[in-house]
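Tutorial, part two.
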Amino acid sequence: MKLKFLVEEKYVFLSAFNQIQQNEPFQGWSSFTLDKWDKYPQECYFLAGFAEWPLLSRISLKTLAIKSEKLLKDWLKAPEVKKLIEETIKYRDWLEEEWEKKGTKSLLELENIIKMPLPEQEISVYITHPNLRNGMALNSKIIVWGHSEDWLNYSIVYLCHEIMHILFWNEKSNRDIVHAVIELAVDNELRIRLNKKGQYFQEDGLRVGHQKLRKIERELLPFWKKYLNNPNINLKDFIQERSKRRK
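Running the prediction step on this input gives:
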């Protein structure tokens, strides 16, 4: 499995532009973006993807799209956006080097945990600013990622987490169990093996994983420990077995 790390300027900008009320990549960004929202609310809602917003019903979407695209081109030239892009590229370069050093070993360790070979495919990883806490698999070929390094090997672990979502992309049922097992396998077991220390569900005093999945994970944990010591069952088998027993 190969990861290709990419910086697409429009995506980097829009990712930061749409998160102003949650995270700020650097001081001054909120002032820059709020000024645009005040001056161009319709265009900003359009660029944010809120096509059903009532403000947009009074104007031709084609006209709005043309105007929004023009504004986007202008905003990409702003000093604030240039700073955003430069910092994202710097982060991309660091992450690419980090993956080159640790990715192969991490994927081999992941295969040991899931007891299955990972597919030979290339995945595009579109990078956003690391202060925006962005990370998810968009489809079976694309990951979006940009996050602070909250603890040792954080990005390595969570890139593997998103790879696991790609591996189970076509699994339409038992999604909570699938996600819980991914967290047990990657956020916890892989993290501990890579860092050579730690415990389940927390790292350096920080909670690991989604709180909404913790109850399922606690229920699965005794069976998960047995799974790790059983060479005759792989991760898909484990998920199928536990899913049947929870019904």
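Residues 113 and 185 are 7 Å apart (CA to CA). In part three we will examine how such features are distributed along the chain.
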